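Hi W.,

Here's what went into the run:
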Amino acid sequence: METFFNPRSVAVVGASNSPFNLGSTICRSLKEFSPWNGDVFAVNRKAEDVFGCPGYASVTDIPQEVELAVIITPAAVVPQFIEQCAEKGIKHVIIESSGFSEGGEQGRAMQRRLDEIARESGMRIIGPNCLGVLDTSSKFCCFYGVTKDDVETFCRNTGSISFIIQSGGIVVIILESFSMDVVKANKIVSIGNKSDIDEADVLEYFQKDDSTEVIGMYLENIKDGRKFIEAARKVKKPILAFKVGRTGEGARAAMSHTAGMANNDSIFDRACRQAGIIRVNAISELHSLPKIFTHMPSLKGKRIAVFTNSGAFGGITADLLVGAGLEMARLSPKTQEKLSKTGQLFNVANPIDLGPAISMQTFLEIFDILLSSDEVDGLLPVPSLWHPMVIEAIVELVKKCRHYGKPAAIYTPNAVHKTVTYRNNYNIPIFESPEEAVRALQVSYENARYTAMKEVLQELNAA
Amino acid sequence: METFFNPRSVAVVGASNSPFNLGSTICRSLKEFSPWNGDVFAVNRKAEDVFGCPGYASVTDIPQEVELAVIITPAAVVPQFIEQCAEKGIKHVIIESSGFSEGGEQGRAMQRRLDEIARESGMRIIGPNCLGVLDTSSKFCCFYGVTKDDVETFCRNTGSISFIIQSGGIVVIILESFSMDVVKANKIVSIGNKSDIDEADVLEYFQKDDSTEVIGMYLENIKDGRKFIEAARKVKKPILAFKVGRTGEGARAAMSHTAGMANNDSIFDRACRQAGIIRVNAISELHSLPKIFTHMPSLKGKRIAVFTNSGAFGGITADLLVGAGLEMARLSPKTQEKLSKTGQLFNVANPIDLGPAISMQTFLEIFDILLSSDEVDGLLPVPSLWHPMVIEAIVELVKKCRHYGKPAAIYTPNAVHKTVTYRNNYNIPIFESPEEAVRALQVSYENARYTAMKEVLQELNAA
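Here's what came out:
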C-alpha cells in the first residue's frame, strides 16, 4: 500500500493538453503546486508533454520504472491501458475514470475484465470511479481538479486523521473544515467502486501506519462484511464510519453513484457494533469528532460534570447528556463544599453555575476539584468567553485533562463563525454546539468500551 | 406593550458609579452606544449622575413623567422601589434583578409581594430575573452588560424575527449568528421568571406587530398552558419554540435557573401540536430555520426534488428526506426527458446528478422544469460552488421559487465557515448542513399544515 501514498514515479494515463482534460490537472498539481518531487509522465495519443511532464503514447514507452499508474480516460479504453500497465510491470494502479459498475451491464463487464487482468499480473488497483489518493506527509496527491489553494492548504497541514472515502465531494468538506480546526488530515483514499482494494484493505494499512491516530470512513456499501469486521477488530485506533443508505431511497441513490449493493442498514449497524466501529450520524461528525480522541483522554465512565455561566446551558446540556445515555455526576456534599470555597459560584450542584465573573485562580481550582474527584468521569465546560482570561483558563484545562486522564468536551456559547475563529486562533479543541460536545463524550465512551472489547477478543484469540 | 420597546423616558433604578455596577452599563449603552434618544435617569442612594444620566434618590424625585422603570438592584430592595414606581404612576417596569422565585422561599414571598403591588397599581412587569428588552427598530435596548460592539451590530441590522427568551445566554448566540445570516432580529424580550407578563402576552403582541414575520421562543417552562395555546392559535406567523427540560435532569437544572415548574415534556409537546407551534430540537434551529419562512414560499406537499453535482449528497439527502417524513419526488418519463434535453446531466432521475460542469442556461432550465412540474412540491439543491456562476444561478433560483410559489432549501457542500461567508456576501438563504436544509423543508411543511389548522379553527369559532 505504501507505494500508493508516495511513489517514486507516476504515469498519468489520459493526461493531455486538450481543453477540460482532467488528467492534465493531476500533472499540474503534482508538478507545479505540490512540493512532492517524484517523476511524472503523461500518457496520451499524441505523446505530448503536459505541464512539463514528458509525454508518451503508452506506459510501455516510458524509458524507466513506473511505480504507479493513474488512469483517467474514458471507461471504454481503460482495459487496454491496464493491459499496457501489466506489460510494463506496474504493480500499483489507480483508476479514476467513471462508467463501470455504476453505469449498467456494459460497465460491469468492463470492471470484471479489469479484475481478471489485475489478478493475472499481481497488480493492485484502487477504484475505478474514484478521486485518488492524498498524503499530507509525502505531499503526494493525485486528485483531479484540485486548485493551487487546495494543495497549499493540505501541504501546510500534516495531521493524524486518515480517511477511507467513497466519494470526492466529501473530501472537500473535510479538508476545508480541518483548515479551521485543531486536527488535520493525514491520508485520504477515495476507493470508488473498489474492484480490488476495499475498505478492509485500507483499514489494515491505517492500523499499521504510525502517523494515523484516528480513522474516518464514508461508505456507500461494504464489499465483504466478514473481511471488514475482521479487519476492524484488529484496529487499535478509533474508527468513525458514516454510511449512506439508511433508507431505501438513499440506498437507491447511492447505487447509481458507486454501484454498491444496497446493504441492509440494520446489518451494517450490527456489523459496526461487532467490529468496534463508531457509526456517525452525519458527514460533519467525520471532521468534528476526531479531536476528542487526539486532544483528550478517553471517557471511561458515564458521569459528567457540567459547569457554565449561562444558566440556560445547564439545562440544555443536562437534557443532551441524559439523551446520549450519559449521566449528570452527583457531587457529594464534600465536593460541593470544596467548590463553594473557590469563589462566588452561583450553584455548586451539577450543573455548576459559575456566575457572571470568576478569576483564573477559581477556574483552576474548579478544574482540580472536578478532575480529581472519583465522582466525575469527564467534564462538559460551557464557559462564556467574556474575557481573554477565560480562553487562557481553557488552555490550562486541556493540560489538566491530560494530567488527570479525564476528558473535557468544551463548548463556548457563541455563533459558529466565532467559535471556529477562537478554536483556530488558540488551537484548543472547542466544539461548535452543545449537541456536538455531548456527542463527542458519547463517542469517547463508546470507543473506550470497544477498546476493552477488542482486548478481550485478542486475548481469547491468543489463548 | 409598545412602551416597553420604545419608551420616551426611562429610569434605571440601581444604576450608580460603583465598580461592577450593572445598572450603569444600561445607562451607558442607552446614552452612548445607541442612537435611541429618549430621556434616561439614574436612581441610586447618592442621587449621582451616571454616564451623563441625571441622578435621583427615588423615581418620585424625577421632575417629569417616566414611562418605563428598569430595576436592577439587590432583590431585597426591589419591593420598595416598585412601591415608589407605583407612587410615581409608572405603568411599565422591567425587573432584571435575580434572587426571586428561583432562589427559595424568601425569594418567592418577595415575588408575590411584587405581584400584589403591580395588581393594585395597574402596572405591567417584565421579569424579574431577566435581561430586559431589545428593539432593533427603535434601537432601544435595556440589556445589562452589553458592549459598544453588540449595540452597533444590532443597530445596523433591523430584521423581522422576534424572540421570547427566558435566558440571556441564548440572546448572545442568536444575535451573533444573525450577524452572518440573511435574516436579522427585530425584537427580543427576555421574560425571566414572568411574575406578570408571560410568553402568551408577548405572543399576542408579536402577532399584532407588523414588523415581526417569525417568532422564536426559548422556554424553560409554561406559566399557563391554556392561555398559551389560545394565544398561539391566534398567531398567523410561524412560531418556533425550544424548551429545555426534556429529561428530569434538564428540568431540575432549569428549575434552579428561572424557577419554572418542571412541566411534563410530553404535555408541552402535545400543547405545541394543538397550538400550531413548531417545536425545535436545538438552540441553533432558532436562528438557522427562520430564513426558510422569510425567504421562501411555504412547502405545501411532501415531494422534494434533489439536484447536486456530488453523487454522495444524492444519497445523503434522500436518507434525510425520508427520515424527516418527506418524499423523493418521482419524476415522470416526460419530465426526465425535458431534463435530458437541458445539457449533459449524469442522471435525470431524482436525485438529479448535474455532473461536473453545467452552464447558467442549463441551471435556469432545470429550475423551470422542476418548479413548474406538478410532480414536485419543493427543491433541495446541493450545488458545488466551483465557479462564481453557480452563486449567480442560486440568486436566480431564489427569484424563481417566489415566482412559482415553491421553496428551495439550498445547501452548498462546503465547510461551515465558508458557507457562512458565501451566505453573508451574496445574501442568499444557504443552510449550513444537509441536515439543516432538510429540517427547514420539514418545518416549512409543518407550518403550512398548522396554518391550515388555524384557519379551520377560526372558521369554526366564527360560525
